Amino acid sequence: MSSPRVRKAVSFVMTALCGTAVLFALIPLAFILFFAVSRGVQSLSLDFFTHMPTPVGERGGGMANAIAGTLIVTALGALFAVPVGVISGIYVAEYRETRLATMVRFAADTLNGVPSIVVGVFVYGLVVLPFKQFSALAGGVALGIIMIPIITRTTDELLRLVPGSLREGALALGATRGRAVFSVVLPAALPGIMTGIVLALARVAGETAPLLFTAFNNRFWSTGLTQPISSLTVQIYAYAISPYDDWHRQAWAGALVLILIVLGCSLLARFATMRLERMHVGR
Amino acid sequence: MRISSERWFKIGTGLFAAAVVVLVVGIAIELTRQSWLAIQKFGLAFLTSDTWDPVSGEFGARPFIWGTLYSSVLALLIAAPVALGIAIFLTDLCPPRLRAPLTQLTELLAAIPSIVYGLWGIFVLVPAVRALQVAFPDALRQLPLFSGPPLGVGMLSAVLILAVMVVPYTSSVAREVLRAVPVAQREGAYALGATRWEAIRVALQYGRVGIVGAIMLGFGRALGETMAVTMVIGNTPKLSLSVFAPQYTMAAVIANEFTEAADDLYLHALIEIGLLLFIITLLVNGGSRLLIWRMGRQDAGASRRVAPAAAAAEGGA
Are A74 and A143 in contact (CB under 8 A)? Predict the structure, then answer.
C-alpha cells in the first residue's frame, strides 16, 4: 500500500485532470462560437436576408433563397415526422408490453443511430430515382426520417410521465381508450412533446449530408416542391469549398445565421422544459 | 361498440408504429437493392480491394473503410478520456452551483451543426494543424505515424474535429452511468479510508459496462459523421498509417462523388459503401445500447453488490 501522502497526491492530480477535461471541451466551443460570430458579423447585413446570391466577383448579395429553402424543407420534414412520431409514440406508451412496441422502440433507437448521409442515400433511391429529379419533397422526406425516432421516443417518455389517475378518471367517466388518450392524456403531455419537436427541428435544420443529393441546391428562388431547392447548410458547404474570398465571407455569415436558428430553438426548448419541470414540482 | 372502438384505436396507432419498423427494414432492403450490381460484380473483394477507379469501373472500398475506422478510433482515443473526465467532474467534483451551466455548455457542442464544424475546420483548424506539422521535429517525422508533407488537411485535422464533436455524446451517457451508481459504493469506499479519486475509481469500476457503452455510442457517432470530416480529411483514397496523410472516409466519398456518379455501376458501388456504413453503425450502436441496458438492469440488484466496492477500494489503495 502506498503512503497516504502519495495517495493524496494521486487523488489531487487526477481530480485536477478531470477539471482540465472540462476546459478541453469549452475551449473549442468558445473558439468556434467566437469565429462564427466575429467573421459572420462582418459580412452579415440586411441584404443577406433579402437578396439572392450574386455571381463570383460581384460583391454583396445574400442567401434569401437558401433561408427560405431551409424553412420549407424543415417544415416538410415536420409534416411527415410529427404525425408518424407522435402516433407511434402513443402506441408504444399505451401498449408497452406488446411485441410490436418493443420492436418499435428498438427500431427508433436504430434509426436514431443511422448516419444522416445513409438516410440521404436511402431517400435518393426511394424518391429521387423514381421521379428522376432532385426535389424539395425528397429533402423533406430525408429530414422527416431523421426526426421520426426523436419524436417517437420523446412522446413515449412524456406520456409515461402523465399520472395514471388522469387516464383512469377519463376511463371511469366512460371515455373510450382513444378518447382518453387524445383528449386527456395527450394534452397533459403536450407542452413537453412540443419541446421535443422543436429540438428535433433544430437538429435537422442544421443537417447537410442528407440534403446533398435529395434537395440538392438551387441558385434561384424556388418554392416548387418538385424542384431542387437551396438550403442554408448546402449553400454554406458550396461556398466554403469554393476558392473565392467573397463566397467564404458569405459562408461565415450563413454559419452565424444557422447557429442563431439552431441554438435559438434549442435554448428556447430548454428554457420551456425548465419552466415545465418547475411547474410539475410545484404541483 | 366500445370494444370495437378500442380495437380501432389499437390498429390505427399500431399502423403508424409499424411504419417506424418498416422504415428501418426498408432502408436495409433498399440499400441492398440499389447496390446489387456492385455486390454481384465484386463480391467480397469489394472489402479488400484498394482500387477506386470510376473510369475503368473497378471499385474497392478498403481505403474508405480504413479511413472511417482509423479516424474514429483515433478520435475516441482523445475523446473518451476527456468525456470521462467531464462526466466525473460534473457528477463528483463540480460545485453544485456550476453544475447546471457547465452541463449545458458541454452539451452545446452537440447542438452546433456539422457544417459549422467543417467551416471552422477549413479556415481555422487546418492552418493551425499545418503550422504544427511544419514545426514538427524531423526525427519524429521518420516514423510512419508522422510521415508525409505538411498539408494541414488530412487525418489529424479530421481526428481533432471528430474528437470535439463526439465528446458531448459520450460524456452525457457516462454522466448518467455515474449518477446511477448507488451512493453506498462511494460511501463504502470513503468509509474504508479511500481518497476522493479512489472513491471515484470504485464508481467507475461499478459502472464500467455502461461506460464502455457510452464510449461505443460516441464511436458510432464518429463513424457516420460526414460534413466536417469531408471538409478537412483531404479526400484521397489511399491507405496510410500516417496522421499527416490526406485520407478518405466512407461517408465522405458518398458525399463527394454521389452526384458525379455517371454510370450505374459507379452509383451502385457508392450505395454499397452506404450499406456497409449502415451495417457497421448498426452493430456498434446495437452493442452500445446492449451494454447501457445491462448497466441499467444491474442497478436493480444494486444492494447485493457492496462487496466489490470494498475489494476495489483495497486494490486502489
Answer: yes
Structural domains of chain B sorted by starting position, each given as residue range(s) with its CATH number in brackets: 64-316 (1.10.3720.10)
Closest C-alpha to B46, from B279, B209, B216, B288: B279
Cα–Cα dist B228/A260, whole Å? 19
**CB proximity list for A193: less than 8 A, separation 6 or greater:** A86, A89, A151, A154, A155, A158, A186
Q: Which residues on B lie below 8 Å from A249 (Cβ)? A: none
Single out the residue of A192, A168, A193 nearest to residue A180, CA to CA: A168
CA B118 vs. chain centroid, Å, equals 17
Contact A214, A121 (CB under 8 A): no
Nearest CB partner across the interface for B113, out of A1, A107, A262 = A262
Nearest CB to A178 within list B9, B195, B200:
B9
Shortest CA distance from A115: residue in chain B: B224
* B130-147 tens-digit pLDDT: 999 998 888 888 888 888
Do A28 and A101 fall into the same domain? no
Q: What is the pTM of this model?
A: 0.91
Domains: count for chain A: 2
CA-CA distances (angstroms) from residue A268 to A159, A261, A275, B75?
21, 10, 11, 31
Quote the domain boundaries for residue A153: 50-282
For chain B, list the strands marked E by DSSP: 52-53, 58-59
Min Cα separation A10/chain B (Å): 8
Least Cα distance to B31 among B286, B277, B280 occurs for B277
Given CA atoms A119, B172, A193, A156 in this order, what sign does their dihedral have? positive
Each residue's pLDDT tens digit, A51-89:
888 877 777 778 889 999 999 999 999 999 999 999 999
